[in-house]
Amino acid sequence: MKSEAYHSMFAHEDTYWWYRVLDELIFQLIENAELPTTASVLDAGCGTGRLLQKLQPLGNSVGIDYSELAVDYCAQRGLGKTLSRGSLNEIPFQANAFDLIVSCDVLYHLAINEAQALQGMFRTLRPNGKLILHLHALDALAGNHDIQVESRERYTRQRIIERVEAAGFTVNKASYRLMFTLPLIFALRKLKQEEDESDFSEVPAIIDFIITTLIRFENWLLKFINLPIGSSIILMATKPK
């Protein structure tokens, strides 16, 4: 990612609605992952460390990121001892090391060889270990944000299922998300013209409350159904025994 994207992420990720409701969904999936009481967890592409910090109570939680800037931001969070600098194209951990791997908005980056990254995740997960992926979706939403994060592609649900299964995983859950905010996100993408504009825009407290409430309801729905459309995709898969 471009350095501006890391700066913006670090500045907003502890308070911005988008991250808050995503973290809640990630932990909703973790509750159903049947992890050991003390689990070994990898945040694959941990960015500036928001989620890695929240994963610490699960047990032995470590992160990896290729960006030196991301590693510096993680160090500011006190995560230096739980972090490795490296590429997901060659994950530097031994086989069967983790009970859970979480990777949020990473696989689509230009620098990532998606097939190699998925194979590395499969190798380093223990049998019956869980993989949670979050990715952006729908080519129609491509815009300046994709340029800032140096995106290779946006996904469809079927496309990511096929690629995860090709790496050896069994997919347990795969759904679009952010369906209720899709019109808003589409409009914002079309309105922003400058490449250095961020997707992060402060909103009035009442708008923040409405958006957060809608997506929390959507998170609850995802316990029971898959949504037919949305600006992102959430997926959980298992490494077969």
Describe the structure.
This protein is of the alpha/beta class. It has one domain (3-238): Vaccinia Virus protein VP39 (Rossmann fold). It is 39% helix and 21% strand. It has helices at 3-12, 17-31, 50-55, 68-76, 114-124, 144-148, 157-166, 182-191, 205-221, and strands at residues 39-44, 59-65, 83-85, 98-104, 125-136, 170-177, 232-238. Strands 3-2-1-4-5-7-6 form a 7-stranded mixed sheet, with helices on both faces. Strand 1 (39-44), helix 3 and strand 2 (59-65) form a beta-alpha-beta unit. Helix 2 (17-31) runs parallel beside helix 9 (205-221). The chain is globular.
Give short descriptive properties of this protein.
241 residues, 7 strands, 39% helix, alpha/beta, Rossmann fold
Number of strands: 7
Q: Mean pLDDT, as a whole number?
A: 91
CATH architecture: 3-Layer(aba) Sandwich
String of helices and strands: HHEHEHEEHEHHEHHE
CATH superfamily: Vaccinia Virus protein VP39
Number of domains: 1
Shape summary = globular
Largest sheet: 7 strands, mixed
Strand order of the largest sheet: 3-2-1-4-5-7-6
Low-confidence stretches: none
CATH class: Alpha Beta
Q: State the helicity in percent bands.
A: 25-40%
Helix run count? 9
Characterize this entry briefly:
The protein has 241 residues and is α/β, with parallel strands linked by helices.
Blueprint (SSEs and pairs):
Blueprint: H1 3-12, H2 17-31, E1 39-44, H3 50-55, E2 59-65, H4 68-76, E3 83-85, E4 98-104, H5 114-124, E5 125-136, H6 144-148, H7 157-166, E6 170-177, H8 182-191, H9 205-221, E7 232-238
Parallel strand pairs: 1-2, 1-4, 2-3, 4-5
Antiparallel strand pairs: 5-7, 6-7
Helix pairs in contact: 2-9
